[in-house]
Design a protein that fits this description.
By secondary structure, this protein is an alpha/beta fold. It has 2 domains: 1-48, no CATH class; 53-198, TIM Barrel (Alpha-Beta Barrel). Helix content is 41%, strand content 16%. Strand 4 (73-76), helix 3 (81-97) and strand 5 form a beta-alpha-beta unit. It starts with a helix and ends in a 16-residue tail after the last helix.
Length: 211
Amino acid sequence: PFPPHDERYDLSEEVMHILKSYWTKEQFSFQGKYFQITDGVTAPKPVRKPWPTFYFGGESTAAVKLAGKAADVFLFNGRPLADAKSLMSAVNHEAQANERSIRHGMSSFIVCRDTDEEAQAELPKLTGVDRAVQHRKTSAKAGGVGSNGGTATGLVGSPQTIAERIMAFHEAGVELFLLQFHPMLEEMERFASQVMPLLPLGEKAPEAAEA
């Protein structure tokens, strides 16, 4: 049977501990509630040190606690800036309680047009053309588009508006953006040619941090 919600995070914590032990120790033993390992060994070790980056998602209390305790990058659904700050603060608090730091990534749907007005006018068209891109949760109540938070981030507008809002999220602590577009290729090209030149590029991607 599928474990209850909070128990799944207890199980996940054991898995993360085991993987880190395999990747950083020559040999180890582990006696947990869900897994028992005696003289565990793995080779070769990962190239990335101390281990491959752990990306972790979830927004429940149990998820926030485990993210702060063991993840390298916390991924969350898109939301307005104030809500994003609140969630990241909660995760940072858990990380600090475990004497470590954590980085943050967020999902968002991009609607870029020459002006803010044109971008806003595009929202109902996107919803009408492809119902699959309509957000199924809170942002759908406001006509939002996209999954995992979609346009709740407000990255809808002119290239300048979108760049400014991306930087506002970045300054708040978001270092990784998981962006959605529709239609994919055409809108990715628009973003690359019109928005990216307005952003400071070249920063290092998130890496794992010692627990």
